[in-house]
Amino acid sequence: MEPSSDIGRLIEIMAALRTPGTGCPWDLEQDFASIVPFTIEEAYEVADAVARGDKVDLKDELGDLLLQVVYHAQMAQEEGSFAFPDVVEAITKKLIRRHPHVFSDARDLTPAQVKALWHGIKAQEKAEKARARAAAGLPEKTEDKGVLAGVPHNLPALTRAWKLQAKASTVGFDWNDAKLVLAKVREETAEIEEALASGDKAHVKEEIGDLLFVLANLARHVDAEPEGCLQAANAKFERRFRGIEAALEAQGRTVRDATLDEMEALWQAVKRAETVKHGEPLSRMGEGQG
After folding, report:
1. Structure confidence by residue, pLDDT tens digits, 202-228
2. pTM over 0.90
């Protein structure tokens, strides 16, 4: 079988991989649940390629992500639920339906009017989907009810916390000042100290979760996506730690040969060498990046 730029060839290859007797044993034993982690991983790899500005990797990663869609569609076709063309039809219908200001008569709308129209159309879609589920004999999705409906459970926890609190804010359940959220952060930090003093590990974990939840809300109040904030912090830590490793390597040593004080000194040297916009307090390695 030859490669091709035709989506039909990709679908044929996926079907061949899933053909009993002649297909790939690994592919044949997979199901929707077992493939989900790969689907999520591929989406992250697309995001990573975009963040790095690597268009060569982006092309490949988009292909890997497309394969995940084809894989799920193939398994659905095998059980008689739907097929790849149904997936394409569903998204094209949705795009046309949600953009009447582009594809029909609702022209010359302001951004605010487009947003209001979008929410109205989504509400109609939700009602139609509920009717379709009822007609198919499927149970009602209780998570689709209420103010917090529509926030996927499989989102990264920080992102989900951010979205849940954004939903709650639409009905006024929110602080009106970021400084009030910061005060809550201090309160949660104090509660972690109390939990640590008690020696109750379960309580410590609970309080750390509360702190992370409030920090996600603080990020929302300053229009900063919390997952992005943490990714930037991860990148900064990695960059500086690799700087320590490079400095020690120049001395013919490794981090395993260095003391904590030596690594701390190198950490501070790396910081001073960086061009930073904001001053940062000195810290021990185990106490934060600083």
Report:
1. 999 999 999 999 999 999 999 999 988
2. no
- 145 in any annotated domain: no
Q: Which domain holds residue 130?
A: 101-140
**Tell me: the pLDDT tens digits for 137-188?**
887 766 667 888 888 887 889 999 999 999 999 999 999 999 999 999 999 9
Task: Write out the two tokens for 54.
Answer: 């690597």
CA distances from 254 to 54, 242, 249, 265 (A): 31, 11, 6, 15
Q: What is the CATH number of the domain that holds 78?
A: 1.10.287.1080
Task: Tell me whether residue 82 is in a domain.
Answer: yes
From 52, 77, 47, select the one nearest 64 (Cα to Cα): 47
Taken in order 88, 94, 100, 104, is the CA torsion positive or negative?
Answer: positive
Task: Give domain status of residue 162, yes or no.
Answer: yes
DSSP-derived 3-state class of residue 145: coil
